[in-house]
Design a protein that fits this description.
Rossmann fold; 10 helices; Arc Repressor Mutant, subunit A; elongated; 2 domains; 3-stranded antiparallel β-sheet; 258 residues; alpha/beta; 6-stranded parallel β-sheet; single chain
Length: 258
């Protein structure tokens, strides 16, 4: 069988025809892995290949190819290294583009905080598991996240009781931008100028985000934002760069090692 590589993403459309134990409609769960550590990617890929309930859909070393995974591969579960998306911005975009996608986040030490866990959950992560967890626990997180939210017991102490809004109604992308500008001290007019919209539109967004966060006023909304991880004291990251046109080559291994 010949594999294909799409801009750093290895693809095996039909790894095997094995009856699935846990995949939807009797098929294996398509799993894609985005992690910057080559040895980890290889090891987890091998474990996925050995599980008859799963199918290795692709692997990538950086966050940008994850967009290609979303757009070009039929995957059910995306396993994402947290350090590649420390503010859960990519995660939010992936879920907004494909609400049926299940994302399992591998939490490494730099991201092992209640703020990150809350931000990832608000963005739509279905599973959270330590990056250093044994492979069996990561595979278990993949399986359990397909049927509902799952947090590995080792991360349970980082889960805080969210507001009713952040539990099930995360802010839209524009509302998120407005909240960040409020936190930076912008007035309604200043936010309108920054986003090139009318002040009335900004007032509408503010009313909506206050309702979703169950906040009394702007200051309370900012407080909730920091407490739940929607806001961070870290400097903002640049938007993802444009993805070049995909290039397809032949390849003899299911795992790309960069």
């Amino acid at each position: 069988m010949t594999d294909q590589v799409t801009s750093g993403v290895a693809v095996r459309p039909t790894l095997r025809a094995v009856p699935a134990r846990g995949g939807p409609m009797g098929r294996p769960i398509g799993v894609a892995i985005v992690d910057e550590m080559p040895l980890f990617r290889e090891g987890l890929s091998v474990r996925v290949l050995r599980d008859p309930a799963m199918r290795l859909a692709g692997v990538a070393p950086t966050a940008n190819p994850a967009v290609l995974l979303r757009d070009r591969l039929a995957i059910d579960v995306l396993v994402l290294d947290a350090v590649l998306d420390p503010r859960a911005r990519l995660l939010r975009r992936l879920i907004e583009a494909n609400p049926r996608l299940t994302v399992v986040v591998l939490v490494r030490e730099p991201c092992r905080t209640s703020h990150f866990v809350a931000a990832a959950q608000a963005a739509g992560a279905r599973g959270l598991v330590p990056h250093a967890a044994p492979p069996d626990r990561i595979l278990e997180a993949i399986r359990r996240s397909r049927t509902g939210p799952y947090v590995d017991p080792a991360l349970a102490e980082l889960v805080v009781d969210p507001s009713p809004a952040t539990a099930g109604r995360p802010l839209s992308r524009r509302e998120d931008e407005v909240l960040r500008l409020i936190a930076d001290g912008y007035s309604n007019q200043g936010i309108a100028d920054a986003l090139v919209v009318s002040v009335e539109t900004i007032r509408t967004h503010i009313k909506s985000l206050l309702r979703k966060l169950a906040a009394r006023d702007r200051a309370h909304a900012v407080s909730i934002g920091y407490r739940t991880g929607l806001l961070s004291l870290e400097p903002p990251e640049p938007d993802d760069v444009a993805i070049p046109q995909a290039r397809v080559d032949s390849y003899s291994s299911p795992v790309v090692m960069n």
